[in-house]
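Example 3.
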Amino acid sequence: MAAIELANVSFGYPSDPSVRVIDGLSLSIADGERHAILGASGAGKTTLLNLLSGIFQPDEGQILFDGENVQGIGPGARSLTQVFQFPVLYESLSVYENLIFALKNRGEFDAEASKRVTEIVGELGLQESLERKPGQLDLYQKQLVAMAKAIVRSNTRLVLLDEPLTAVDPIRKWQMRRVLRRIQSRFGMTMVYVTHDQTEAMAFAEKISVLTTEGIAQTGTPDELYERPETPFVGHFVGSPGMNFLPVEALARDGLVGNGTTMIGFRQDWALIEAVGGRPKDLFDVTGIVRDVRLTHTYAGLEVGLIHLETSDGEIVVAGGKLDIGSEAGIRIHKVVRYEDGRLEATDDR
Amino acid sequence: MDKICRILLVSYGVYLLIPLYWLVMISLQANADIVSGFSVVPEAVSLANFTEIAASAVWRSAFANSLSYVLINSAISLLVAIPAAYVFSRYRFLGDRQLFFWLLTNRMAPPAVFLLPFFQLYSAVGLFDTPFAVALAHCLFTVPLAVWILEGFFSAVSRELDEMAHLDGFGFVEFFLKIFIPVNRGAIGVAFFFCFMFSWVELLLARTLSGSAAKPVVVVMTRTVSASGLDWGVLAAAGVLTVIPGVFVVWFVRKHLVKGFALGRV
Amino acid sequence: MIVKPRRDKAWLGVLPVLLIVAFSAVVPLMTVVNYSVQDVLDFNTRFFVGLEWYEATLTDPRFQAAFFRQLAFSATILIIEIPLGILVARGIPRTSKYTGLIIVLLAIPLLIPWNVVGTIWQLFARSDIGLLGVVLNSVGIDYNYTSNPADAWVTLVAMDVWHWTSLVALLSFAGLSAIPPAFYQAAEIDGAGSWQIFRFVELPRLRSVLVIAVLLRLMDSFMIYTEPFVLTGGGPGNTTTFLSQYLATMAVGQFDLGPAAAFSVVYFLFTLLFCWLFYTSVIREDDG
């Protein structure tokens, strides 16, 4: 286990070093933390992961494991492990041989290590599969073995998880998320989980860093990201659908928007606030502050109903429970009502 | 170990090149120089051997014969193998697997086994001593191979392409010619490579099925040895000329070649 | 696994292949089987002789000798070419600007007419004008493949290795290129050395490609005709006469239709048998 620190790290691919894929990135991950890196595809997640694992070395800046600079140290010597998008196991070896492969390579397979392996096997319920070959297991079990393999060495400083649930059957994803959290708290490893899926990040992590092409937009607990996004990007990216924004001028003209609104900008400093944002579930009374609100479309899902409104200051989405309106697109809206039971209604009543 | 492999690659490359170097070198020397004095680097270089071949009607017709049966063979093989590979890759039908494997077993038949019956068969239908006899005989080996390779490539092409074309209003033939074949031109190039690789290099059947009129290069070469005896220079020059089409074909499909070799449905 | 729709009309698509292969395989094979049980004096006079020619073939000492030479040759070249091909393939850089060039170079021997391969080696190995022959003799090794059986064998094997190792290497390289980079990453993280990467990551994933490589080399080496025909003509004596050459002499040289046909059938069956034995032994290992 180790605390991980990235200080001002920059990196560009050797084919074109002038393009900084990662530019001046700084990030601290505490010892034993479950940390998620959340970003859209193309944001540089995989590059960041490869910098952590040592496949790439930063052009500038430092990566520190417990204060030790790991510059120039390759993946084999960083004492870290990785779980990949699909199960990566040695097909000709049994599950048990797979588990002890790294230990044997390093001459660390002693009585204590053997005890730890037994413990992990028990924790993950792999007893029945130990003598089998990976080819005889299903994807879920294989990925379980890959996770067990990632924590067998007690001196592992960091476990990297690269979208590890991609290949897992959707209905078993929740099960595997629970397993991941359980083994993390049981064995106390520092884990970095890279994903583009916010549900995955929210369900797994204690802290999430939102990665964009510009760098890390915000690091915080799942609640912080959801309730107090620091930039419109984070507000829009986290939550589904994302936050609604209205420019500050609109706000200044007519006052606050509904309940539960959030100031977006720098450190609550009014002079720097760019916009006001509201979660679709909190926002309803928009009609007081913006002019020319029109209904664009509605969405009636099983658990959530959405009303999309077009205003003179941008699009707004209001979310509620079940939706039972059939209003036509294009009509002027004067009021959106959310009833006690969560039902939404958009009307043109004054 | 990685270092050992790299060294082996380089050594093997050198091992490949040395006999080829020697072939080229001998082809550039006059026969008298070859026999009289041995030297690793030639003292006098001349293209005389090549001009002799170019001037000879026998050699010219031999090259023309070889190229014509190779091209006829490739054309027939691809023409029949493309539709077959397509249906193998898209549908199940009565006896499909058995048929596929039976086709492959033909690849295992030693050509020598077919010498006698081929000779009689093609004599009986009047094709003996024409490029068509050799081309058809080679089909026995090239057709199964082409079906095998194309089936692998076609299976990797998403079936949605077929459905989309159908929804877009293409008829089957139009879809096949205008969309499917252009999409798979790399695959067809690789299949051509393998047909060429067999038909161009084979000697036994080519020799048996051609008399004096359709005599291919490979046969003229073996007869040159016995007839004129020792004109090593001309022989080497002919050898160099037979290598060139191969290099040309492999250069043409080099991008798809690795994928072509990766396909193995056993 | 995608389930293919069933459509028996698809037979129309394979019909041309079926016709052409039937024309060039089934009819001739039937002819061969037919001849193999008859004594053909001329095309109008023939007797049914049952299995006599088969018995004659199997008890023919020259056939037996050629058969065991054939086995020894196939075994030798498999033992050399398969491992060498795999190692050479490992040496090819996966993503370098030279990769294409190396592939083209490796593919060249595969596209040289087989008799030209023989010619190249003849020119290369002769002790009067060949680079190899002259160099070996000048450093005091008495080498002459036309008179010494051992030299002839070594030269044939060297030629086959030159000619066909590329096929194994290209097949293996294709197999290696298909391994996802994550497997190499994982092995590096696990502290595996290059030998272990080879043993536990690469070899298991090369399996199906190697099955094909061994099958192709096994059957092709079993059919070898042209290269030894040009290089040694089967000599000195009969020391490099393999099955195809013996058969060709019988069928075309002496025109012994019956015995040659029986020989052909036996030959084909042996080839199928060896391929089948190898294939099933590999498959059985899969289940175990």
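The first helix of chain A runs from residue 45 to 53. Residues 241-347 of chain A form one domain.
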